[in-house]
Design brief:
There is one protein chain. By secondary structure, the chain is of the alpha/beta class. It is globular and about 85 Å long. The structure holds 6-O-phosphono-beta-D-fructofuranose. It is found in: Cytoplasm. Pathway: Carbohydrate biosynthesis; gluconeogenesis; Carbohydrate degradation; glycolysis; D-glyceraldehyde 3-phosphate and glycerone phosphate from D-glucose: step 2/4. Its EC number is 5.3.1.9.
């Protein structure tokens, strides 16, 4: 296609949302009108499914749950007045709590103000708060947010060490929808211990964000934690940024959560339109479907040209991959669906993996996120008449063009500024696009059975460890791995046992491995 035809295509397909000042350009995805027509029946069904979902249908059949993240930013849409009221009240409680913490009306026992927050949570209970903090927190927030989003002991130590002089003024948010995920539970126990080590009573610093009556909720209630906020059964972890999961940390950092909700609501209104060309989420879903042949054959590379948005790709990774990455479709057919997502930021990545994007395996489509406002205030001229922002803008256009010339397609989302409204809108845009795409490919976007398999396997390894160590304690002399496995009733699991013991040995926790380390089956093991 020549330059004039491309310019025409750009204008034909350009979507603009006036209220949000958001543009979506899918002109560099090479679909044609016949393709769009061929998808119309699937889109009609997707829009109908979505309308039912918003009315409270059981849109997550496997877990027999409603899917209601859209109600969080428009409580009047909730299917019952009770739910509407609950959403409204929770938001008011969050704002009141944040205000009291910021003004010092709620303060720690030994300080006049809370200065820091440790947020403990994983997956959807971390990625949204992390993305939003990076995108929107002021340079000097009223409370500084630190994350424990893993089970890495060294990572936990690092956070606690950084805060060792301010633990007495550090609030702890424990965020877990289920209230039973091992990682946040373990993180909480470690942090609790650190507080005890500083003679601080954990309950006076701790806030739980979890489902009512979960194990975490019960613990927080029994121990009299500072506050508890509800997470709802009908909100999935990966779409929970606009629930207490995301709003509590955001409000505490002084982020305008109402503006974030308003931006999401405006985008929800725009993505409810059942006309593909005038619905930005449908345009995204259409582009993904075309790019990956409806089978996820191409990865989604997300490139925000703005440092504060660099966590967007990580956030989208869970939203897209946990939602779409499914073995079976809704009819039980094996389909192995999904779209792989990765990315970081431009133009940084220009000097890293963009080389491969331009010339290597053509297994992706790019999504550029462009921000029109360079910075607040005037810019220095780097060259006559040229600012750093001009360079960044030029790098984006240049990369988009260079990729297209080499048959690598791309989408460009443009926002006027990074602010709570546009960030809320971006989240809502992708939530809806994922929901619509899931309908196009007929998968349940709202469950995650694959994650459960990994969780179960991990639990069985820990169970094996307990059994093996119990056997080892009774042994008087060193024993071979085979024998130990036999005695533990786990002859088939020698490799797992070897790995368990090697790990415990490396941490000098009462297990000694002897022999040729390069030949694991030559090793003997004893308790020290
Ligand atoms: O908030 P929870 O229940 O601790 O779960 C954390 C994460 O774990 C998952 O359930 C599965 O990994 C995610 O979907 C979720 O975001």
């Amino acid at each position: 296609m020549d330059a004039r035809a491309l310019w025409q295509r750009y204008q034909n397909w350009l979507y603009f949302h006036e209220g949000l000042g958001l543009y979506l350009d899918i002109s560099r995805i090479r679909f044609d009108d016949a393709f769009v027509d061929s998808l119309r029946p699937k889109f009609d069904k997707a829009f109908a499914d979505m309308a039912q979902l918003e009315k409270g249908a059981i849109a997550n059949p496997d877990e027999n749950r409603m899917v209601g993240h859209y109600w969080l930013r428009n409580p009047d849409l909730a299917p019952t007045p009770e739910l509407t009221q609950e959403i409204v009240q929770t938001l008011e409680q969050i704002e009141a709590f944040a205000e009291k913490v910021q003004t010092g009306a709620i303060h720690p026992p030994r300080a006049s103000r809370f200065t820091d927050i440790i947020s403990i949570g994983i997956g959807g209970s971390a990625l949204g708060p992390q993305f939003v903090a990076e995108a929107l927190a002021p340079d000097f927030p009223p409370l500084k947010l630190h994350f424990i989003d893993n089970n890495d002991p060294a990572g936990i130590d690092r956070v606690i060490n950084h805060l060792r002089n301010s633990l007495a003024s550090t609030l702890v948010l424990v965020i877990s929808k289920s209230g039973g995920t091992p990682e946040p539970r373990n993180g909480m126990i470690e942090v609790k211990k650190a507080y005890a080590g500083h003679n601080l009573e954990f309950a006076q610093y701790a806030v739980a964000i979890t489902s009512v009556d979960s194990n975490l909720d019960k613990l927080a209630k029994d121990e009299g934690w500072l506050a508890r906020f509800p997470m709802y059964d009908w909100v999935g972890g990966r779409t929970s940024e606009m629930s207490a999961v995301g709003l509590v940390p955001a409000a505490l950092q002084g982020i305008d959560v109402r503006a974030m909700l308003d931006g999401a609501k405006e985008m929800d209104d725009a993505t409810r339109v059942s006309d593909v060309k005038n619905n930005p989420a449908a345009l995204l879903a259409l582009s993904w479907y075309f790019a990956g042949n409806g089978k996820g054959e191409k990865d989604m590379v997300v490139l925000p040209y703005k440092d504060s948005l660099f966590l967007f790709s990580r956030y989208l990774q869970q939203l897209v991959m946990e939602s779409l990455g499914k073995e079976k479709d809704l009819d039980g057919n094996v389909v192995h669906q999904g779209i792989a997502v990765y990315g970081n930021k431009g133009s940084t990545d220009q000097h890293a993996y963009v080389q491969q994007l331009r010339e290597g395996v053509a297994n992706f489509f790019a999504t550029f996120i462009e921000v029109l406002e360079d910075r607040q205030g005037p810019s220095t001229e780097i060259d006559p008449g040229v600012t750093s922002g001009d360079y960044l803008s030029g790098f984006l256009q240049g990369t988009r063009q260079a990729l297209y010339e080499n048959h690598r397609d791309s989408i460009t989302v443009t926002i006027p500024q990074v602010n709570p409204r546009t960030v809320g809108a971006l989240i809502a845009l992708y939530e809806r696009a994922v929901g619509l795409y899931a309908s196009l490919v007929n998968v349940n976007a709202y469950h995650q059975p694959g994650v459960e398999a990994g969780k179960k396997a991990a639990a069985s390894i820990l169970d094996l460890q307990t059994r093996v160590l119990a056997v080892l304690q009774k042994e008087k002399a060193p024993i071979s791995l085979d024998e130990l496995a036999k005695k533990a009733g786990a002859s088939e699991q020698v490799e797992a046992i070897y790995k368990i013991l090697r790990h415990i040995h490396a941490n000098q926790r009462g297990v000694v491995l002897q022999g040729d380390l390069q030949k694991p089956d030559s090793l003997t093991v004893s308790a020290s």
